[in-house]
Amino acid sequence: MKKYAIVQVKNFKFFFSLIVFATFFLSGCWSSKTEDSKLVVINVLDAANHEDCHMTGSINIPFESLEDQMNSLNKKDRYVLYCSNYACSAAPFAANMMKEAGFENVRFFHGGIADWYQKGLPCTGKAQMGYLKEENEPLSDDSHPGVINISLDELKSEMALAKMF
Asked: Among residues 35, 44, 165, which one has the least CA distance to residue 110?
C-alpha cells in the first residue's frame, strides 16, 4: 500500500510562501498606506492682518472666503481656526460652519494671534497691528456651543509635533 502525502516536502516551501504572501497581501500590509490626517491651522483674518502677523505654519483663508474654499479641504484632516484675539468671534463661527459642513475634527483657538504673539511663540510678519500689543483677556461669556476651544499649550504642542515651526 502506497502512502500519499498531502504536500510533498519539495513543494512545502512554495505553498508556505504562497500562504504568507496571500495573508500579507489580503490584509493590506503591502497596499498603499492611507495618509494620516494632518493638522491644518487656519487664520481667518483678512489678508492684510494675516500678512502683518500669523502663526508660523498656518494658512490664511479669510472668514468671508471660507465657505467657498471648504470644498478644497480634506474633511478628515484636523483643523484649528484662529482670528485676532478673545474679542473676535470669527474663528468659533468658522469652526462651527466647518462642523456643520461635515468636517470631523475642528477646533478654534480663542486667544487668537494676539495671545500667541504675546506669549512669544513663532510668528511670521512684521507684527505692527495695534491689537497685537493690547491687553487680551477672555470675555465673561466665552461659550460657543458645538465647537471646541483648544488651549494655547495644546495648540503649541500639536503644531510642534506636526513640525509646523
From this structure: 44
Domain of residue 63: give its range: 39-161
The mean of the pLDDT values for the chain is 85
What is the b/e burial string over 16-34, where b = at least 16 CB atoms within 10 angstroms of the residue's CB? eeeeeeeeeeeeeeeeeee
CATH number at residue 153: 3.40.250.10
Per-residue pLDDT of 89-109, as tens digits, reads 999 999 999 999 999 999 999
Q: Residue 131: in which H helix or E strand, if any?
A: none
> Which of 8 and 40 is assigned the larger pLDDT?
40
- Give the whole-angstrom CA distance, residue 117 versus residue 124: 10
Does residue 20 belong to any structural domain of this protein? no
C-alpha cell at 103: 468636517
Predicted structure pTM score: 0.77
Residue 131 in any domain: the answer is: yes
Residue 1 counted as domain residue? no
List, for residues 41-70, the tens digit of each pLDDT value.
Answer: 999 999 999 999 999 999 999 999 999 999
The answer to whether position 91 is within a domain reads yes
CB neighbour list of residue 99: distance below 8 Å, 6 or more residues apart: 106, 146, 147
Domain count, the chain: 1
